[in-house]
Design goal:
By secondary structure, this protein is α+β, with helices and mostly antiparallel strands. Helices cover 26% and strands 22% of the residues.
């Protein structure tokens, strides 16, 4: 049975077809409830089989060549381009298709054209826009956010026929990617009619809408000037986006500066700066470099498979609308024992007026417990994952939608951002490094961890020392130390150490009580740590020395600091260049164990994101948080809107208070000086140029390259047993 028979099916037969097709074509969904189609939809087995056969049965060359295989690729690409226009009902005489990596890349092509206009451009966008549309404002000469549909209606109605020096661009989503609310598609046609002398160009974000609904561009007078698509949201595979552009908009792209391979007919390099853009189709001028030919060929297979399995997009729309209606009704009916509602649904009209023309199959909601307290979205996500439910939580790249749904004004969002930092995200949140310069050990989520004056419990209590010199080894000279992985086994009461090439691990007791050691298992010896001579407890076991020596290639063994016994207080202190008071009342430098400079190192997710943006802008590889060997990673509150991070805010912070510790404060001692050690990949031990090259150019102060902040307990916070856990709310202050 195929989708071609669906019109004649009874409801029972249709349900049977969907059930059997799901099992056969989507085996990856077995025992899984996948509810993140707005992110990407799963691909079918038939599509992958068809694509595999296409690749194995044909030879496809580079379209920029002229060989038979290249000509085959060119023909397939052009056939697919035409087929996609047909899929959207777009006249190929009026519209062209530009293939992109995703819808955001398609938006950037439009922005780059408008940015190069002599007078720049004026930009208006709807508050329901995806972050990628909001970001366009940064390139505009003037910009305005329309807070409601009625404001847009008023603006369209008062358009005059005056000629404006700068072109105007109005952008909005056909469907909110957060709530599923569908915006009027006739705004594009009305703007074309009202602006007959110097019209406003329209950019329609159809990424969310087209994933489950037919996109009809057949009325050329009503269609947008620019339409962006995420094809993987429709078909699951391939990972492609597209820009459907009116050919009459071609003059806008003539001032485009950058040109890539395949977009020019001639380039002069010597003595003159001149090039001739492609004189053919518009897409030839905009598709820089070699096209992702295999992905485009896969798109052709995807469109054909979609038709076979599901029939028309109208049928997909009806099916998903029914499912969404069922889910909204189910959520609305969920109640606690006392009759209190569990779910609050956003952006949805009353269920009696649940109209597929105004509401797509996306549902945004929050949950409340029996005391009417909000359940954390991360908690919902964790519980859903355990039960095999795949959904998306957080801000979903829709800052305006979040602000409207939660009733937050800009000042409240900024306040939430300033105060709402959490100790990390779900990965690499809090770490300790039991052995100096070796790999970190991630503190389990939800595990309260003791904070001592010397730092986090079990952090840098051990080191590996050279058997001849007594110096502590460092990753600077021995990058393979990054692959030595310690594990704190509290049940067995031991620290386990696993070398990368070893079959078995070695272990030493966690206890500092000398009675738990064999009489000759350790010796008190001097060791050199960062140029300081400290008394260490050096393990004399030949097995330990042999294991570590084999792993690192130098004669070495394990040592512990401070020495075991009652007199185990640290006698090392933070470095002299770090402040002792910082205005928080401490006169004595904080004690440290084997860390280089301070008890605790903290970094900011916002700053790491900005650093990685700078690295990737130059074609480099993003830095993993592990290279900075931080104990605490501060990430924004889930309520913070995306796209409004505050990188380097830690430069102004004096400290933070931790909610769990009844307001106990941690003092920021100053920026952490960085060296080439941050270039060691903590997963492979290989040395790279980044991130130090970029840090040296962007974060150099008085000859010092800084990233992260040194941290210690403030005076008055050392009494009792203070603990912190990943996810604890912290308040920073300046």
């Amino acid at each position: 049975m195929s989708a071609n028979n669906l019109p004649d099916m009874s409801t029972e037969a249709y349900d049977g077809y969907i059930e059997s097709m799901r099992k056969e074509q989507y085996p990856m969904l077995h025992e899984t409830l996948y509810l993140d189609h707005a992110g990407t939809t799963p691909y079918s087995k038939r599509l992958m089989d068809r694509f595999h056969a296409e690749m194995m049965g044909n030879l496809f060359g580079n379209p920029h060549s002229a060989s038979p295989s290249s000509q085959r690729s060119t023909q397939m690409v052009e056939d697919t381009r035409l087929q996609l226009l047909s899929f959207c009902g777009a006249d190929p005489d009026v519209f062209d298709v530009v293939f992109t990596a995703n819808s955001t890349s398609a938006i950037k092509i439009v922005v780059e054209a408008f940015r190069e206009q002599d007078a720049g451009f004026c930009y208006g966008y709807h508050a329901d826009s995806h972050t990628s549309l909001v970001g366009v404002r940064e390139a505009a000469t003037m910009h305005h956010c329309f807070e409601s549909d009625s404001e847009v209606e008023s603006w369209i109605g008062c358009q005059d026929a005056a000629t404006y020096e700068a072109p105007r661009l109005f952008a909005y989503p056909a469907q909110s990617n957060m709530t599923g609310r569908r915006l009027p598609l006739d705004w594009c046609s009305r703007l074309r009619q009202e602006n007959f002398r110097r019209r406003t160009y329209t950019l329609l974000d159809a990424a969310a809408y087209a994933s489950t609904s037919p996109l009809d561009l057949s009325n050329t007078d009503a269609a947008p000037d620019f339409t962006v698509l995420s094809l993987y949201k429709i078909f699951g595979f391939p990972d492609l986006g597209a820009l459907i552009v009116r050919k009459e908009c071609a003059p806008l792209f003539r001032k485009r500066r950058y040109f890539g391979g395949g977009t020019v007919d001639m380039v002069v390099c010597l003595k003159e700066q001149w090039h001739a853009p492609k004189s053919g189709a518009l897409h030839e001028q905009l598709e820089d470099g070699t096209l992702p030919i295999h992905s485009i060929i896969a798109l052709k297979d995807a469109m054909e498979t979609q038709l076979e399995l599901f029939g028309t997009m109208e049928r997909v729309s009806r099916h998903t609308a029914y499912l969404a209606r069922r889910m909204r009704q189910g959520l609305a009916e969920l109640k606690h024992g006392k009759g209190k509602r569990i779910a609050s649904i956003y952006g949805s009209p009353t269920l009696e007026h649940d109209d597929a023309n105004t509401l797509g199959p996306i549902i945004a909601f929050n949950l409340q417990d029996s005391r009417s307290s909000w359940v954390s979205n991360t908690e919902v996500e964790k519980l859903a994952s355990v039960r095999g439910i795949h959904l998306r939580t957080g801000g979903v790249c829709n800052p305006g939608g979040i602000a409207h749904a939660l009733g937050l004004s800009p000042w409240e969002m900024r306040e939430n951002f300033s105060a709402g930092h959490r100790c990390g995200s779900e990965n690499d949140i809090m770490n300790v490094y039991p052995i100096k310069s070796c790999a970190g050990w991630q503190i389990p989520n939800g595990s309260p961890w003791e904070i001592r004056q010397e730092g986090l419990a079990w952090d840098r209590e051990w080191c590996i020392v050279h058997q001849g010199t007594g110096k502590a080894l460092s990753q600077k000279q021995h990058p393979q130390m990054a692959l030595m992985r310690p594990h704190l086994d509290f049940e067995a009461g031991v620290l386990r150490i696993m070398a990368p090439s070893a079959v078995e691990s070695i272990s030493v007791p966690l206890s500092k009580d000398p009675r738990s050691f064999e009489e000759k298992s350790f010796a008190q010896r001097d060791a050199s740590v960062c140029g300081e001579i400290v008394q260490s407890q050096t393990y004399t076991s030949p097995a330990i020395a042999e294991y570590l020596t084999k792993a690192l290639g130098v004669p070495c063994t394990l040592a512990r600091f401070p020495a075991a016994g009652a007199q185990s207080a640290s006698v090392r202190h933070s470095k002299a260049h770090l402040p002792r008071s910082g205005g928080m009342g401490t006169d004595v430098a904080p004690r440290i164990l084997l860390s280089n400079e301070s008890p605790i190192l903290t970094i900011s997710r916002s700053s790491l994101n900005r650093l990685n943006e700078q690295i990737k802008a130059k074609g480099g590889k993003a830095a993993h948080p592990a290279v900075f060997r931080a104990n605490i990673l501060l990430a924004e509150s889930p309520l913070s809107p995306p796209g409004q991070e505050q990188p380097w805010a830690e430069d102004q912070w004096r400290g933070m208070r931790i909610d769990r510790t009844d307001g106990a404060a941690m003092q920021f001692l100053g920026g952490c000086r960085r060296c080439q050690m941050v270039c060691i990949d903590q997963r492979s031990g290989e040395k790279n140029q980044e991130p130090f090259v970029t840090l040296a150019k962007t974060r150099r102060f008085d000859g010092r390259v800084l990233f992260g902040v040194h941290t210690a307990l403030a005076t008055g916070s050392e009494g009792g047993s203070l603990r912190i856990a990943a996810g604890d709310f912290v308040e920073t202050f300046t």
